[in-house]
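STRUCTURE:
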């Protein structure tokens, strides 16, 4: 198993990509700590993992708040004694919104979840990783941070910031054997993300248009993103830091 004996925190662990990553990481031997604000959803994912023989633990945490991010790291370290991997999967998209209609509160919330949470988790996890001789941080950004979508200025710019933050952390932390990488999915085939892009009545049409726009003519799934995260978390990727893996069916070409 590729993550045998490792402890892995997954923020935003209840969304589609978080769940897929949690289930896969547990299957590969990790002790998974799920962080989210959805307690009911968290309990369901833990039950799913445990029913398959895996190990999972849920902590209620809004990681865009410093005190809650700090508590997540403390509780995990107190329970398991080590933090090997952090997957910063928490993410907040927004429906297409022109700049003149974009509110300050939405802008601030998008940046808090998509950027500030990465800062908070690193701030509190890195000292423990240094003490333990290394670790892995994986951030989920988006292809929107590379090729902006129309009327997505808050989301796209926040994901570009997450990419640059990843590279900065990778440079700063390499000397401590802490690898930091980023995954850029394109739009992923999950009901929640598709509903952000289109109204309920237009989800099927939106999916068709998105699929046809991709060179591989197939939308990535949450599991596709999870497998990229698994690779980056594993020792197979021990020479990789500061890189972006685009799970995008060719959108970035």
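SEQUENCE:
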């Amino acid at each position: 198993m590729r993550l045998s004996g490792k402890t892995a925190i997954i923020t935003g662990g209840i969304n589609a990509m978080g769940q897929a990553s949690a289930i896969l990481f547990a299957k590969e031997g990790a002790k998974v700590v799920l962080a989210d604000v959805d307690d009911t959803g968290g309990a369901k994912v833990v039950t799913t993992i445990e029913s398959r023989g895996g190990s999972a633990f849920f902590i209620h945490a809004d990681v865009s708040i410093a005190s809650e991010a700090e508590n997540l790291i403390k509780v995990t370290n107190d329970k398991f004694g080590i933090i090997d991997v952090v997957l910063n999967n928490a993410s907040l998209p927004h429906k297409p919104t022109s700049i003149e209609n974009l509110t300050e509160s939405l802008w601030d919330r998008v940046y808090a979840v998509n950027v500030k949470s990465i800062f908070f988790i690193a701030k509190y996890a890195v000292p423990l990783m240094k003490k333990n001789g290394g670790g892995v941080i994986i951030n989920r950004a988006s292809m929107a941070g590379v090729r902006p979508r129309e009327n997505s200025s808050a989301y796209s710019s926040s994901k570009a910031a997450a990419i640059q933050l990843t590279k900065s952390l990778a440079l700063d932390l390499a000397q401590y054997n802490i690898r930091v990488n980023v995954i850029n999915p394109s739009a992923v085939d999950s009901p929640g993300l598709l509903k952000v892009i289109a109204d309920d009545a237009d989800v099927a049409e939106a999916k068709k248009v998105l699929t046809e726009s991709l060179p591989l003519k197939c939308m990535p799934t949450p599991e596709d993103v999870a497998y990229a995260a698994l690779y980056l978390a594993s020792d197979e990727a021990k020479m990789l830091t500061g890189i972006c893996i685009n799970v995008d069916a060719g959108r970035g070409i």
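REMARK: The helical segments are 16-27, 39-51, 66-80, 104-131, 153-173, 191-197, 203-213, 222-233.
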